[in-house]
Queue: 4 jobs
Job 1
Amino acid sequence: MTNNSNFDLEQRTFIFAKAVRSYCKKVSPNIANIQDIKQVTRSSGSVAANYIEANESLSKADFVFRIKICRKEAKETKLWLNLIDIQDKPELNETKNKLIDEAQQLTLIFNSIVKKSS
């Protein structure tokens, strides 16, 4: 990987985490949503943070381990996004679907990195 591609994915994961937070601010805060929002905020931020950690890894094994965490957190983010109830705000469906798609794309990217690094 070149530094440019590392930066691009660092930026992409950062933008993803910010977009999730922006979406969550628009969701109605009922009891279930509050808990799911806390979880999705953590997991989306973890994708970005662990990717930065992977780029600063001390060994190939550490790099692969961190990328696997990124993949796991991206999958988890997708779960939490699907659990958040927006029935009262159908206008959020498009944003929700875009975020779910981005979580899936990141999962596939991290899966590819793991396969190429193993």
Note: The helical segments are 3-26, 31-55, 60-83, 93-117.
Job 2
Amino acid sequence: MPRFLPVLVLIGASALFGQEIKSTELSNYEVLSEALANKSVPGLIVLDVRTPEEYAAGHIPGAVNLPLDRVFYEFPSKSATAPLLVYGRPASSDARKAADILRTRGYRNVILFGSISQWKGDLQ
């Protein structure tokens, strides 16, 4: 029986790691939707860089609103590793600009989701 123990440990570890979601995969709607529903990505912040009016009209569940013109001033420079997913308006580069600003301020795990139009689920 003891010789099977390492095999069981390997199988258990594989099962656990198979469930892990890499933050880089969060730019995919299905992966993000699952991660939000299961709260499976520790420390994940979803940042909506549209205007407060656009945010109020509907946003990804749990998203925090911080318009692009405030990103530079309200996110201090620091070395942060928690995943920070950014999205904005359709046909706009505001999310990309916000992601670039955050990266230059030291945030190392910035994921560009892109546009709110990529979200296929219910809006909050």
Note: The domain at 21-118 is CATH 3.40.250.10 (Oxidized Rhodanese; domain 1).
Job 3
Amino acid sequence: MKKLRLRLLFGPEIALGPGKIALLQEIQKTGSISAAARRMNMSYRRAWMLVDTMNRCFRKPVVVASPGGKGGGGARVTDFGTTVLTKYQLMEAMAVAAVSTQIKAFSKLLADAPSDEN
């Protein structure tokens, strides 16, 4: 399948992209960075690093986490994070719509499947 993927760069960082969007969605569903990471077959450390990058790139935190322990801890996507998520999804939909004809034409230039040869 050929499709457009939107990544937003902020300096040397990828502030937001498909993987981070999926992580935010899983955190919304599970209320936990570790549970979201497990569902995505990702290490907790990797998930935490992605959350940290997002929180550093935006004006406000997109995810806040509570320490674990007896109370259980957890994480949630902030209202600001929900706004970021929604705006990204809208931009991605608009970008796909804007280039859909060109993507179809460009797809004809691609092989049927990636080659193992360099």
Note: The beta strands are 8-10, 13-16, 63-66, 74-77.
Job 4
Amino acid sequence: MLKLHTRHVIYILVGVLILAILYALKNTGYFVRASGFILSLLLFFLFDYFFRMGFKSHHYVIFIFISTAGILLSPFYYIFPVYDKVLHLTSPFLLCILVFFMVNKLNTKFSIKLFITVMIITSFLALFEIGEYGLDRLFDWKLQGVYLRDYSGVEKLNIIMDKNDDTMIDLILGTIGSLFFVITKTGIFHYKKYILKEKI
């Protein structure tokens, strides 16, 4: 088992390595994506370090995956429209794992811990969509709506799903992902209780 400090150093080195690879490729919008990715890694690391969350190695892997899929690979949004929906279904499930790890430290019933976890993730989803709306209004980044990149002649983005529909579907998929975590975690919880009871 690696020491906490060693894991953090490895975590940062992986982030810097990915940054260097992307710099060599010099993709469109690289600096926005790379800086967002590095910032997310840094914030997660600082949160774990200063608040002594004690995240395990697999929690770091989960967060790196979420950041990579959502930030570094964001050009896929305009190539494969379904990519956005897959992320909005799977990311909340993975985020629930991280949040539940923190909530699980509370001295309360298992069902309450699950409820708190889902409420935190649902609130985060709502704030995320509000953030997208605000950035679109200020900078027209086209974060709301589903777009498909058109390469015929002049490169442009064609909207294929209305902004309101996109927002509502994202929230619905995120909620489904969170509820799937509840079902999975509840099943594991009762299975472990059953196995424990069998051993007594």
Note: Residues 1-72 form one domain.
